[in-house]
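retry 2 of 3: previous attempt timed out while embedding thiamine diphosphate. Reduced batch size to 1 and resubmitted. Inputs unchanged:
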Amino acid sequence: MPNGNEPRKHTIAVLVENKFGVLSRVAGLFSARGYNIESLSVGETLDPSVSRMTLVVRGDEFVIEQATKQLHKLIDVIKVTDLTDESHVERELVLIRVNAEPSNRAEILRTADIFRARVVDVTPVSFVLEATGDEGKLEALIELLRPMGIQELVRTGKVVIARGPKTRVRRVEAPRKPRVADDPRVVGFAD
Amino acid sequence: MKMAGARIVLECLKRQGVDLIFGLPGGAVLPIYDALYDFEGLRHILVRQEAAAGHAAEGYARTSGRVGVCLVTSGPAATNLVTALQDAMMDSIPIVAFTGQVPTHLIGNDAFQEADNVGITRPCTKHNFLVKDGNDLGPIIREAFHIASTGRPGPVHVDLPKDILVKEWDLVWPDKIQMRSYNPNYDGHPGQIKRAAKLMARAKKPVLYVGGGVISADANAELRELAELTQIPLTQTLMGLGSFPMEHPLSLDMLGMHGSYYANMAVHHSDVLVAVGARFDDRVTGRVDAFAPKAEIIHIDIDPSSISKNIKVDVPIVGDCRRVLAKLVEALREELREEPAPAVREGRRQWAAQIAEWKRDFPFRYEWSDDVVKPQHVVQEISNATGGEAFIVTGVGQHQMWTAQYYKFKHPRMWCTSGGLGTMGYGLPTAMGVQAAHPGKLVINIDGDGSFQMNSQELATCFTEGLPVKTVIINNGGHGMVRQWQRIIYKERYSAIDLPQIPDWVRLAEAYGCVGLRVTKPSEVLPAIEKMISTPAPVILDVCVDKDECVFPMVPAGGANTDMILEPPTREVRDKAAKSQTGF
Ligand SMILES: Cc1cc2nc3c(=O)[nH]c(=O)nc-3n(C[C@H](O)[C@H](O)[C@H](O)COP(=O)(O)OP(=O)(O)OC[C@H]3O[C@@H](n4cnc5c(N)ncnc54)[C@H](O)[C@@H]3O)c2cc1C
Ligand SMILES: Cc1ncc(C[n+]2csc(CCOP(=O)(O)OP(=O)(O)O)c2C)c(N)n1
Ligand SMILES: [Mg+2]
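retry 2 succeeded.
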């Protein structure tokens, strides 16, 4: 069991106002303290005036506590949740262009199949594979493909969602109905 | 009714209750300056360099309790302002700074006098805005003042592209501010307050450690009530000076690197340390693992990120110190209804005796001389002559520390110093802002010969705007604080610290239409101070002091507070200090 002082990876979900500049505020907060962000993904939520960032950062409890408090302190940040010790599902998507010589095409397809990766582009000399999964699965796939010659690799960064409750509870977000913020002329409206 | 964006800015300032701004015009903000030409009810003070506008706004804000405002143009003016923004950031001073920007369609084009203003000020403001739509002017200005002045106060920057200022818009003025992402917590948790009260009531060696947050919160009355009710001795940070009268018997004066021996000893040996609106700065804690090692720590602060940042806290209370202190007083009255246990009573008696002994045996002290003026003596005389009733501002260096040690602060919001950033050149422009906020009141800038030269051009502003700031230059012919470190830590290898007697301060004052005075002998000090005070114009009083004088006591950087030295150190202490990693 980590005693809290060993650095480990934390997955932090941050709800922010969907305003320009907010990404550099968050990124600046980490860079100003010399912390590295290992992975970052950003996207709109059900409410288009709110974006959700998923950050993976490494640090001991102390660093993470300060980082979380500093995130909270940013005026555009609405909510910060450290999901690391919560029950959650995490996924990442990777696109891999790999050498496909006649000698290894079958092997690549077999490997792809095992990992439920899809072939999304084919040329006489290469395949592009698309795979989703948690970090461990993607690492394993990459390791198996590496000997074949990976030409290029792109990862999205992690997205994470908390698992559902064991019992029935009220829906967190109401079904969507039209509102002011849906008006395309209104940018960054809070309702 | 539609009006130009520039006019909207001024209307919004007026609605916000602003009656004074500090600034300097230029291309991108010309529309605002044009609107200012016949705008009623808003005084503009023209500074000589933009950083001075920022510092003046700080002085105005700290001493009036209102938000300070400055206005400068794009590019170089905005970058000049950066030092003042960071200064306000570090010391939690509420100011709103407006900068001009190139027209929106040119942003990012390397246009004339363009700089990425919001990019540059992002890390040195509490928040910043780039106005991209004139309809947002009102809401943004409203939010800017709200953010600057609530929660943990701080600087907010609003960048105004020129086309937004020129085009006409409707004035949108929301009557309520609602921000789902910003809701500071003012009321402390009742359970935590109760825990704190219990701890305090049972403590045998309690100490109150109070800082700038008490000033921001205007909580001095509640603080005094708490101290007097519990009879707990109290020490103040550099930023907290004035929150509690120094002459009060419970006062332990300032703590920290150049604080009093008795304050540092009391904190070190305390069993319960109550931090109120103070942030455990490294100049206060010294080596953190040796700071108040036996104490259970209670920390009242409005900013959760201040809590357990440097020192682990046992009872955190997030809230406004005024409200929390009021509740804490109530809770303590409850606790104190019961007679304290005899062991507690006896512990407290011994603690009071111990503190009285430290105070008696190790007061602030310096060697008197009949021939050369001692800087500490100058501050003492200023303190006596004003009875602690003047507004005091400083530069950064030894003179700043002597002022903190020897001026008998009485009231809150009468003291401005650059604590967090340590900005040389802060003195004169800040004093100007204080004077502008308090016409007819005595404002004294106790400055260094080095620091003063970083903003001496503002003498022109003092003269032309009728701001009769009194500056006392503690003239030690150099960067005294640096010299002190080179003497104590770098084996007297004096490097780049001499400031030969240039300029002639008396003639400089006269060149700016101000009054210049000079003293070189101890016996002349008091008469000169009296003359300075009774002169209606801005004055520079040049006091030539002993350049060898050092600030003591002193905790060498990286040392524990118990390593405090009371006089020039031995070689051993010097070598140890030379190895430390934390410079200044
Ligand atoms: C040459 C030099 C030497 C120095 N030596 C010393 C020294 O010996 N001793 C010393 O003390 N300092 C010294 N300083 C100053 C030091 O660097 C810090 O600026 C200072 O100690 C910080 O003071 P503070 O803890 O009161 O915090 P401040 O910077 O005043 O911060 C205020 C704290 O209160 C909180 N707060 C704000 N508003 C509220 C509210 N309404 N309710 C509750 N909390 C609130 C804030 O969140 C913050 O945590 C020196 C500076 C210089 C330049
Ligand atoms: C802008 C800036 N530059 C450099 C420093 C480093 N520094 C701290 S104190 C000091 C010397 C200050 O000299 P002076 O104003 O004459 O004050 P003294 O210590 O002599 O009283 C210097 C250079 C600083 N604090 N601020
Ligand atoms: Mg000097």
